[in-house]
Backbone:
């Protein structure tokens, strides 16, 4: 995967698929499977945000000499997404099927809007901006993706 768009776009789709699997498991009341898949989703999302916030956004902010551009908005959106994930985790722990599915609808809309801006505008812009240096950024992100995920319950 030799572009930021390709690498992170693929990761977006992986997160989406895990979220769909978790919803399907909850809808079918397959709770053990839902626990396992939701945990995998949380870990993937946490790694995704870490790749963006600790590598990509930092490189962008350094290049534009500022932190109050689009990355500030995206960091706020990550926090909002995380607060909905927290509600999903709580609903799952309570085996509250309808609450989980309701929060999942909200989450899907928030993530779709956020990812659309990244996929269509932000990542392609970074691919152009960083030229050959993008390979170093992808390598740094890959290291985060391959590191063991923190326990999402902590
Ligand atoms: Fe993001
Ligand atoms: Fe993203």
Residues:
């Amino acid at each position: 995967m030799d572009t930021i768009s390709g690498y992170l776009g693929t990761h977006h789709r992986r997160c989406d698929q895990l979220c769909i699997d978790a919803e399907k498991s909850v809808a079918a009341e397959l709770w053990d499977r839902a626990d396992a898949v939701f945990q995998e989703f949380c870990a993937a999302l946490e790694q995704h945000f870490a790749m963006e916030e600790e590598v990509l956004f930092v490189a962008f902010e350094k290049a534009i000499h500022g932190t109050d551009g689009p990355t500030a908005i995206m960091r706020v959106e990550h926090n909002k997404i995380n607060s909905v994930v927290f509600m999903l985790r709580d609903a799952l722990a309570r085996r509250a099927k309808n609450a989980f599915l309701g929060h999942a609808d909200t989450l899907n809309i928030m993530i779709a809007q956020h990812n659309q801006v990244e996929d269509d505008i932000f990542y392609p812009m970074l691919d152009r901006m960083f030229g050959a240096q993008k390979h170093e950024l992808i390598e740094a992100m890959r290291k985060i993706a391959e590191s063991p995920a923190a326990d999402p319950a902590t």
Notes: The two ends are 32 Å apart (CA to CA). The chain is about 85% helix and 0% strand. The CA atoms of residues 55 and 126 lie 12 Å apart. The pocket of fe (ii) ion (ligand 1) is lined by residues 52, 74, 78, 114, 118 (CB under 6 Å).
